[in-house]
């Protein structure tokens, strides 16, 4: 099951996803990037079926590019979220895409990052922090407790690692490896491909 | 309703009159029964093994529906096979077994589970034999047309994407395809896994089928990028052999292919049971 986590900080958006792609009990690929780049300052994090995710994200990327080519201007994160939601909603009763998404973006005009939570049923909500998949159960409370407005990048990264550590610790399905990406005024950058091993931490504590 | 014959005629006609990319590759017509809800009909006569083996904790009406479907199940799809492929420094190795089962009986020990797409690309077969054979054969036709029109060899990425798009458009129709597109092109050795659910994954090694966990065990233990050609071929052969030993739905003969810049070549074709004991003797001699 896919895990996606994201939250907004001071002039950046931090997003993380696990890097597993599998089929039933088997892991087919352990370096699968679920944080797809839509344009220079937006990421669509996808979870759910692999085929639906690929095709739907391709649809959004191409249409956003087409808009940019036709109108010589980039869409805001809010517009992309609304467009994406509409695509999901019109498809739900005909040919549903079983993908859950987190859309994160940085708007140069507002000088702010924003995060949207999108569902396969066609729901959409602007959020400060959120998660998809089993991670949402574990990480929701951590973010409720520790997220603050305008977190620095270092604090934000520490908070993200705290969340991912909890997912690795409690989720019985092994998801050790996560990819963390950040969006800020300079664009999208891969922060870290982190391999969490919470067991090691406990050993050190016991020794001390 | 279009028949299979007229699909191909349409394709050729459209290629002469119209050079647009869409008509070239949008061959989305399959023969479906001329009834009100063809999708529901297709679902009702096809039962996949995973549906039949679900736990019994379902509400009563679900249970009844499952029983009805079991009775009417004319086509049973299951991926009773072992196929594997991996890329390494010098090329791509593809290894398959050759057993086909229907229920508890072995239907055939000599099934051709590797379908050549063109001279430097192979497709493997897992799931429904008819589905795989048709779509891989069709992929071969499309790739040939691409080469003729564009005067360049199609890349493995493009070929796998074409197949992926076709299968995605049929994703709820009960097709069962678990194929790997393996080849060698300008980017080097390439390997893609294509599924009837619509997934397409790129990686350096894959194994598909009921015997795949067993094959993965041997494969993961021995795989390195800088294997020699001999070692790579031996690794593929041993992995399938191990899978046929453990999995009852895999067996027959072990076929190994190698793809490099000169195209694909069939390396060997050994009986699976003999192979196991041959390896055992080899180990004894080494000790």
Automatic annotation (TrEMBL), chain A:
Entry's family note: Belongs to the peptidase T1B family.
Entry coiled-coil feature ranges: none
Chief place where the protein resides: cytoplasm
Protein name (Swiss-Prot/TrEMBL): Proteasome subunit beta
CDD domains attached to this UniProt entry: proteasome_beta_type_2
Source organism, top-level taxon: Eukaryota
Function statement: Component of the proteasome, a multicatalytic proteinase complex which is characterized by its ability to cleave peptides with Arg, Phe, Tyr, Leu, and Glu adjacent to the leaving group at neutral or slightly basic pH. The proteasome has an ATP-dependent proteolytic activity.
Localization, UniProt: Cytoplasm; Nucleus
Summary of subunit composition and partner proteins: Component of the proteasome complex.
InterPro entries linked: Ntn_hydrolases_N, Proteasome_alpha, Proteasome_beta2, Proteasome_bsu_CS, Proteasome_sua/b, Proteasome_suB-type
Pfam families: Proteasome
Sorted UniProt keywords: Cytoplasm, Nucleus, Proteasome
GO CC aspect terms: proteasome complex
UniProtKB/TrEMBL annotation, chain B:
PROSITE patterns: PROTEASOME_BETA_1, PROTEASOME_BETA_2
Leader sequence segment: none
GO CC terms in record: proteasome complex
Entry keywords, A to Z: Cytoplasm, Hydrolase, Nucleus, Protease, Proteasome, Threonine protease, Zymogen
Keyword Repeat: no
Function: Component of the proteasome, a multicatalytic proteinase complex which is characterized by its ability to cleave peptides with Arg, Phe, Tyr, Leu, and Glu adjacent to the leaving group at neutral or slightly basic pH. The proteasome has an ATP-dependent proteolytic activity.
Family recorded in the similarity comment: Belongs to the peptidase T1B family.
Catalytic activity, as annotated: Cleavage of peptide bonds with very broad specificity
Protein name: Proteasome subunit beta
Superkingdom of origin organism: Eukaryota
Alphabetical list of PANTHER family matching this protein: METALLOPROTEASE TLDD, PROTEASOME SUBUNIT BETA
Pfam families recorded: Proteasome
Record bears the keyword Nucleotide-binding: no
Location in the cell: Cytoplasm; Nucleus
Record text on subunit structure and interactions: Component of the proteasome complex.
């Amino acid at each position: 099951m896919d895990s996606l986590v994201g939250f907004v900080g001071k002039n950046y958006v931090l997003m993380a996803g696990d890097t597993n792609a599998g089929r039933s009990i088997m892991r087919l690929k352990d370096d699968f990037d679920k944080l797809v780049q839509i344009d220079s300052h937006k990421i669509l994090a996808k979870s759910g079926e692999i085929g639906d995710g690929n095709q739907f994200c391709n649809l959004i990327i191409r249409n956003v590019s087409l808009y940019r080519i036709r109108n010589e201007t980039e869409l805001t994160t809010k517009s992309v979220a609304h467009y994406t939601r509409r695509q999901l909603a019109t498809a739900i009763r005909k040919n549903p895409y079983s993908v859950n998404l987190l859309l994160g973006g940085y708007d140069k005009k507002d000088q702010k990052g924003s995060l949207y939570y999108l569902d396969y049923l066609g729901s959409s909500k602007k959020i400060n922090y959120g998660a998809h998949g089993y991670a949402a159960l574990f990480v929701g409370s951590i973010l409720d407790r520790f997220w603050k407005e305008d977190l620095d990048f270092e604090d934000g990264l520490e908070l993200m690692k705290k969340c991912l550590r909890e997912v690795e610790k409690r989720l019985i399905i092994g998801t050790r490896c996560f990819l963390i990406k950040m969006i800020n005024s300079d664009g999208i950058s891969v922060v870290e491909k982190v391999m969490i091993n919470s067991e090691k931490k406990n050993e050190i504590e016991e020794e001390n | 309703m279009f028949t299979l014959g007229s699909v191909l005629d349409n394709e050729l006609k459209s290629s002469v009159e119209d050079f647009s990319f869409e008509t070239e590759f949008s061959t989305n017509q399959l023969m479906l029964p001329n009834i009100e809800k063809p999708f529901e009909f297709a679902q009702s006569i096809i039962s996949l093994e995973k549906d039949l083996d679900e736990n019994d904790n379902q509400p009563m009406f679900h249970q009844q529906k499952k029983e009805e479907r079991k009775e009417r199940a004319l086509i049973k799809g299951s991926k009773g096979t072992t196929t594997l492929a991996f890329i390494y420094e010098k090329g791509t190795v593809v290894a398959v077994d050759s057993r086909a089962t229907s229920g508890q009986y072995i239907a055939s020990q000599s099934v051709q589970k590797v379908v050549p797409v063109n001279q430097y690309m192979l497709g493997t077969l897992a799931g429904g034999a008819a589905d795989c054979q048709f779509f891989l054969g069709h992929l071969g036709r499309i790739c040939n047309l691409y080469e003729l029109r564009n005067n360049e060899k199609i890349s493995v990425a493009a070929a796998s994407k074409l197949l992926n798009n076709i299968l995605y458009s049929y994703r709820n129709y009960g097709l069962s395809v678990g194929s790997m597109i393996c080849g060698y092109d300008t980017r080097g050795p390439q390997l893609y896994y294509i599924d009837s659910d619509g997934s397409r994954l790129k990686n350096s090694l894959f194994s598909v089928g009921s015997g795949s966990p067993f094959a993965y065990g041997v494969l993961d233990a021995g795989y390195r990028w800088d294997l020699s050609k001999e070692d790579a071929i031996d690794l593929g052969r041993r992995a399938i052999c191990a899978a046929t030993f453990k999995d009852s739905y895999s067996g027959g003969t072990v076929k190994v292919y190698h793809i490099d810049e000169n195209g694909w070549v069939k390396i060997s074709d050994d009986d699976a049971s003999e192979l196991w004991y041959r390896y055992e003797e080899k180990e004894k001699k080494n000790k």
